[in-house]
């Protein structure tokens, strides 16, 4: 059997055996890659971490994947603004298509400021300051983090996160994750995970450390392109573990979402602009 055919058969079998979408109660009809393909822009993504999802969740949360891919690639240490060059341009089009409004929020011309920063070579260069604190970015990244939690829960617990379960997520942009916070998280996460296909891994793009009881709770610290980190705890019995936890020592904001809430969360917090019809 050819590789493409084999892949199709495996994916078909997954859709037939999975009881529901990993993100909601609907029957699955599509294959969802989590981490998403867009994160591996122009690089090969190892096979694996493919899940069964419904069409509405798969399509309706694409914007979250695009925004996460963008923030995982923006580095203040880069010589040139990533957004304006090379790979960044392709990603920019994806963000504009799947997450309209984010571009204006992040690179708001009216709020635009330039700061002189030291690049990788040590030379001071002017850089546009990026606004990552807007409501659209927050909504998209909260949903992305919850998706990742539900997918990795499915992978490590062996079944989808229960409908009355939930994922608590906290994300850190760029160098926002302090060493102290990272060490505090890592102390409870002993197991190393990544996306592997034989000996081919993509640790630079996606790596995580996790802990899991293989029954009802999964926790992980995930690094995406080393620029964007997510700490998450997913549980099918969140009340038993007193989730969402209050994290007084952690300055980043935390969020809690349940299966079935992702598409609605975006519709409410990151509504797509209505297209205006212009008459000739
Ligand atoms: Zn769904």
Key phrases:
two-stranded antiparallel sheet, alpha+beta, globular, binds zinc ion, about 280 residues, 8 helices, single chain, about 20% strand
**Strands of the biggest beta sheet: in what spatial order?**
6-9-10-11-5-12
Detail the poorly predicted runs.
none
Fraction of residues in helix: 25-40%
Bound molecules: zinc ion
Protein name: HNH endonuclease
Organism: Rhizobium leguminosarum
What would you note in describing this structure?
It is a single chain. With 280 residues, this protein is an alpha+beta fold. It has a domain at 10-60 and 139-266. It contains 8 helices and 12 strands. It has helices at residues 3-17, 55-60, 62-73, 87-98, 102-106, 135-157, 179-186, 262-269; strands at 30-33, 50-53, 114-118, 124-128, 166-173, 191-194, 196-197, 200-201, 206-212, 217-224, 228-235, 254-257. The protein has a 6-stranded antiparallel β-sheet with strand order 6-9-10-11-5-12, with helices on both faces. Helix 3 runs antiparallel to helix 4 (87-98), helix 3 crosses helix 6 and helix 6 (135-157) packs antiparallel against helix 8 (262-269). It is globular. The relative contact order is 0.16. Bound molecules: zinc ion.
